[in-house]
Automatic annotation (TrEMBL), chains A, B, C, D:
Pfam families named among the record's database cross-references: GATase_7 (PF13537)
Family matches, as SUPFAM superfamilies: N-terminal nucleophile aminohydrolases (Ntn hydrolases) (SSF56235), PRTase-like (SSF53271)
Gene3D superfamilies for the chain: 3.40.50.2020, Glutamine Phosphoribosylpyrophosphate, subunit 1, domain 1
EC number of the protein: 2.4.2.14
Pathway entry: Purine metabolism; IMP biosynthesis via de novo pathway; N(1)-(5-phospho-D-ribosyl)glycinamide from 5-phospho-alpha-D-ribose 1-diphosphate: step 1/2
An example Gene Ontology molecular-function term: magnesium ion binding
Binding site for Mg(2+): 312, 374-375
Domain Glutamine amidotransferase type-2: 25-248
Organism: Aliiruegeria haliotis
Protein's recorded name: Amidophosphoribosyltransferase
Family recorded in the similarity comment: In the C-terminal section; belongs to the purine/pyrimidine phosphoribosyltransferase family.
Keywords in alphabetical order: 4Fe-4S, Glutamine amidotransferase, Glycosyltransferase, Iron, Iron-sulfur, Magnesium, Metal-binding, Purine biosynthesis, Transferase
Binding-site residues for [4Fe-4S] cluster, renumbered to this chain: 265, 411, 468, 471
Keyword tRNA-binding on entry: no
Length: 495, 495, 495, 495
């Protein structure tokens, strides 16, 4: 593995968000505007929830060639300085935001930040990748044996090296060659001097949408990033589709892969995507509210108020309240000035922990039977703390209702999940979890209930599920080759 | 006026918040803990909504004397570095957060950041002030004539100079001397080497509460800052009361001023205080929800959904929905990564303006009759933009309901308000405002309705109102001496 | 004493310079140019050797009033940014550079950085002070008793407070009042909205010169700062003189103090002033070369080469070589990239110490009898290290020749000296010092020889010495009142 | 060419140094000490004069693998922070300092900063290169055609790609393969997990020396960097030699190239190397003094004083004075606080230009006939300014004596020189230059005189010159292939 560079890392993620699954990336691209870099900066700002650690932008100008900048930190704090943005001229641009990945893989370095750039004999190309390549170990070994020099520890870099070694004469064809060799999940936005390119893997695990504003074409992970620049949502890039966009020919669709049934990530509906995005024709907010409705139907309970765990539990809590008739109330208040870190210097203060981010509305909670609606339970550490806060404030009962099924399996398709043994649901039954959290009741939405909420009236078709739900079901639509080599055990018939 | 120092200013406030009244300060103090500076940092973090521009902390250690640090920026970004905090040892500490004040007064400089410190023959003292002194011009002239040298442009500095010139032999007595000379609103937290002191002006315009955690006593602008450190809320400091707190004698109460009827700021209930604080024995969240209930009773309208203008309109929108039976929905989504600035480099992008911070949930809004609940209308600029976003998203009707009466008069008691002529309600009737905003209806809660929501069943007693409501009524409980000298006109009998 | 602020300190001075006496300040002022702040920045850059730790500039513009900026670090790194300099408009400006003072007094804070500013009823004034006030403790107590609030720990601040309390109606008169109350050494540059003022104490201990460029008048500690802006050297401000300079009246001379014999600091000739300055009509470089000539006459020795200890020993080494006929050679090379700090992380490296800054020219030194010429011996720590370097490189003999008499007494007139017991010459005879340093010979120039080199053909007149030479003679021309109170013992008849 | 990254550039070089030839790099490596990174940092600090813009260090630790850091700025300011240095553990380390190269090549980016790292199937390797590859254009095209992805615009990167494609099984053999393909000048320091490697090109154009301290072996561009860590100078790496150093086998010498006559860069003696280094067994200081002696013999002139242009002209001026008997004097004083930039904000100040860095000792110069000794004349811009300063100060005559022959040809072997047409001596005869500079006389040392000063008693052997003197003679020992392709014209028979 290449040498870790020692650049300062500006922050760790929220202590609190350690107990969430985390989408690892957002991608965005635009062509046909003199303001390309600013459009990408705005798009990345709208996609910041998909990756908070770092971002990068590559542009191309016919006068001055390719330009690139990569920065740690929020887009709002980095890609907003006029002195930086004026160094990114051009009419085509792509960008990427990424999360930090956990300590096991070591620290992220600036050279790990995408987009990756390569210069080929027919010109340069840059790529930005959302997803994860599941056979990267083997590919990397093979490329190094033949003389490629890797500059990062990112799985995505092998795409550009595969492109460099393709014998094809144009870049989109080289990209097809490269992507046919990789396995896993990928929504890729790429660019050449004149073209903007978007690709989704055959299963379409990660989202990618096409938009239009004025004369410009836009590619984005989510529709909320079209809204921020006033772009019209045209359509989703289809699973297995490659679009090559140029001013002369517009959007040209290719089908480089063999056809397969799509398996979109169901967790995008539950948590990853922004509530104001539209996924598969459905409002994410409305889907989440509907999950709350299903949850209230499946697991009713007598109580005085329904409180969301802010902010991700809010839409489901609204749905739960509307379906159950139990009043909705903001029993937990989030500190809006909570930053990415708040160093707690003494033991005394460290023990105060969660209050830095959340506070209970004591006057509201005291003496009440409280239903808490959260989006998911990962390690369970947060749920315990929140329960304690609520009881400290004088609640008479605490009932957890969770807007997703038990998360029992790690994701290998571009989501940062703990190792399996760290997932509460991998080692405990629902009842054991309730006891572990010491709450009056704990109920998860069923997998069928979740499918109903996302529009499958019949629930999940076990023979041919419409979504990737491996984190709940343990059924992996793409074999995680590298992980199996490292010793990961798939679900056995007995499980 | 003293020379403005040229320290870099890190930011301007939210473009969006320019259309809000802004509380100018929060204060916090603690005594009796070896962790005093960390407690103050946590308390200021919880009070950050009361002042986002800068903060300061003064501590005293018996071994090393007084220590002080003042910083621009959020507490989470400044008073969290171990290297800074270890320079603030001591068992007594006070702190202050402050907002920027508008351009008219020029830029804030680091030397304008409180607490202010003075060394007297009997030892040092530091003070932090929330409020505004209405006769500071005269006091300042008088003090300069006698040889005082002012180091800041802050009105609060005159308190420490008045103390320096008092003939009293101890610091609390000097503070009484000083505060008897100042007019206006003041909640002051002060400290000597051994004592923590809290004072509220006779009208009690600004809040100040007393708490206890372990062996330590705490003073804070709001109860939410007691919660963050796990302190118990003991009581409010009373209007006109001074408490002198020391480890030996505990809390000793003084009454340095002549008794008057109290006039607490009613806008603290509407907007300034955090929803999880308790004011006058009432949950701020619950009061705001109740404002929504009153608003729905006073101004019902037939519609499909009730949407808050996030985040300050949320509790009133919940109350409005509950009273009216019209479903509550998050039609406007706030970008949680919105920072303090987002420089918009081109005209094209500048025109996108408000989308950086807010986005509409199009799928939810399209074709609906929408009630928008906001906390107040100041200049009206924001309301216009939000209305346009909602209509762009396809709403069939837009009805504004405002959780406070028309804001027609500036505040001179520690709130940053535009000049009177900039206030929409100062120049237009409700009907003209509706036309100006071009919405289907626009209704404000009545002043009586607001008094009912804060617990006055009979509404406002015009002869002896329980609150300061000058921003709505134009009735100023303390004559704004400096402002009158500068030409401000009080309400005439005719108005 | 006021609370130390916790601003970060960018550096300590050279580890190497710890073994030098250090001038504490340089002052500069200009009037009559639209470029006033830039002129002052250039002047301070040329005076940087008089104070490396921090600098400040105050300007006044008729349109925008007073402006001020204070910064830690070198002038070249601070007062050169266009964004800072454009915040310092005006046609009158003064500035100040200062050294750090040793740990005993605690860290310097930004508020200790001059110029100091005060606003009086007749307008504002700023002052910058080179020197030291020897009765500041008593003055400070008195001022605090009467209600003055000190913002710094600087002795110079009492001047502005004394001015604030004067009953005089104009600022120059108030300044006379104030300076008649202070004892010690002071060369002060001050400004009002319209006037530039310069004053030297009656003994004229510190330098101050008047220059002219175009229509502008300039005041500066040294002539080298006139050269940098192309100003013509007009004359020295005389001991006990105050000049008040305005565009209308030009330079008006006042004599506010009772006449005394002047006692200029002789160490300015030896070390403090820059070699390209002119002091008392004499080239500093030439005086130092002449010291080398006197030294060679007084203390000849047979040797192969004469090497300066760079850089301050260079002119005397040249003179020594010319007088003795022994060839001059650069046997010690200074690393020109040596910064203000070089953190040495391990014991192993810490022991390498002095090589970071200096290296010996081994090929030149090996087998040679070497005369090392240095400007002074303070603690003797540096001399030891240099001797070891030279011997390591194979020198056969090492002879030290010192261009000043033994430094046996601390300075209380604006120079940072160690406590008396730390001065090598306070506790050892010349012979003991030679043994302590373990060199083949060690000789200092005599006090008479030094007086001859600065132009007193007869040497020192013991009854009425022309210079302040207290650091050599222990004869203090102004009684150090504060120091006596703190226990310092003057020279006894026996010594 | 790859996209320029937009990282901020901290500085430009001295305005003054724009008129010098500039060595582009220094290299340093160590093996066999737990303090490897600190040793390299110290070594690079001592080599800072060879490259001021940026530096990098790579280390290898058996426990934690390879580590790397690259920084803009001086070593003293970057590789001295404990928090950075502790991220560079290991027992083998190499480092590099580099100059900025002129605008024509675009800005240097952090990814252009060496050492370069590559991971091969048999493990990682890092290289640091001093020199310049003259056939890099062709090599780069070839490598890109075969699928290599370049991350920098540096010529040195092709070495690591050539190594990646070698079929050899160990890294030293791969390095031989790679270096046999490159043409030009190279002194390379490289490392694997266990070995330290040093190579000089067959002509030995750039220096590289071997040292030893305790159990550690050291490679360095110059001996002055051995001194700083107390290492003993063992020998020079010979032209065409590769040394492979490991703890087990010590220093093993290889001869990978065909034998050629060596051609060491003569300008290293004149200017590039530090005066306390030893080159080819000769003290650089002594060589430069001897150049002064030769210069005085070749071009005597009657005058009053000999002044060096500081600091590079000093040794030759001393020699000139000693040979001629005319007294040596510091007529020009360098401001030791001059930084890398001093922004001059107004036209008025910009015209003061050179005084920021240098000042004339007026009292010394007035009325004198002055000989100025400088190391070289490149564009001539500096010489003009200095002459003006000297005349302004009242000199009666100005005679320039230059310690190198006229610089008439650019260097293509690792030195940053202006294009040929910018070199004063490329377009003017000595007489025209004298007229252009408007001085009383201008004389350069002859090429033969220079050879004599470096020890060739017979002067230059035109048939087989011992040094590379292309910058003076136009005779390039390695054909500059890339430059010829870009249109550079070699010296014709007629010239």
């Amino acid at each position: 593995m290449p040498a870790p560079l020692s650049n300062a890392k500006p922050f760790l993620a929220h202590p609190f968000d350690d107990d969430k699954l985390r989408e690892e990336c957002g991608v965005f691209g635009v062509t046909g505007t003199a303001d390309a870099a600013n459009f990408v900066a705005l798009g990345l700002h709208a996609l910041q929830h998909r990756g908070q650690e770092a971002g990068g932008i590559v542009t191309h100008s016919m006068e001055t060639g390719f330009h690139s900048a990569r920065r740690f930190g929020y887009v709002r704090d980095t890609f907003t300085s006029p002195s930086l943005m004026e160094k990114l001229p051009g009419t085509v641009a792509i960008g990427h935001v990424r999360y930090s990945t956990a300590g096991s893989k070591g620290q992220t370095e600036i050279r790990d930040v995408q987009p990756f750039f390569g210069e080929f004999s027919m010109g340069g190309a840059a790529i930005a990748h959302n997803g994860n390549i599941t056979n990267v170990d083997a590919l990397r070994r093979e490329l190094i044996d033949r003389g490629s020099i890797f500059q990062s520890s990112s799985d995505s870099e092998c795409i550009i090296h595969l492109m460099a070694r393709s014998l094809q004469r144009d870049i989109p064809e080289r990209m097809k060659d490269a992507l046919r060799r990789v396995e896993g999940a990928f929504s890729v936005v790429a660019m050449t001097r004149t073209k903007l390119i978007g690709v989704r893997d055959p299963l379409g695990v990660r989202p990618l949408v096409l938009g239009r504003v004025g004369e410009s074409w836009v590619l984005s992970s989510e529709t909320c990033a079209l809204d921020i620049i006033g772009a019209e949502f045209i359509r989703e890039i289809e699973p297995g589709e490659m679009v090559v966009i140029s001013p002369e020919k517009g959007v040209v669709s290719h089908r480089p892969f063999e056809a397969r049934k799509s398996r979109f990530c169901i967790f995008e509906h539950v948590y990853f995507s922004r509530p104001d995005s539209i996924l598969g024709g459905r409002s994410v907010y409305e889907t989440r509210r509907q999950i709350g409705v299903e949850l209230a139907r499946e697991n009713p309970v007598d109580a005085d108020i329904v409180c969301p765990v802010p902010d991700s539990g809010t839409p489901a809590a609204i749905g739960f309240s509307q379906e159950s008739g139990i009043p909705y109330a903001m029993g937990i208040i989030r500190n809006q000035y909570m930053g990415r870190t708040f160093i707690e210097p003494t033991e005394q203060i460290r023990n105060m922990g969660v209050r830095l981010k959340l506070n209970v509305n004591r006057a509201l909670i005291a003496g009440k039977r409280v239903i808490l609606v959260d989006d998911s339970v990962v390690r369970g550490t947060t749920s315990r703390k929140i329960k304690e806060m609520i009881l400290d404030a004088g609640a008479s009962e605490v009932h957890f209702r969770i807007a997703s099924p038990p998360t029992a399996w790690p994701c290998f398709y571009g989501v940062d999940t703990p190792q399996r043994e760290k997932l509460l649901a991998a080692t405990m039954s629902e009842d054991e979890m309730r006891e572990h959290l010491a709450v009056d009741s704990l109920k998860f939405i069923s997998l069928d209930g979740l499918y109903r909420a996302v529009g499958e009236a019949e629930g999940r078709d076990a023979n041919c599920p419409r979504y990737c739900d491996a984190c709940f079901s343990g059924e992996y639509p793409v074999e995680p080759a590298d992980m199996l080599e490292r010793g990961f055990k798939l679900k056995t018939a007995a499980e």
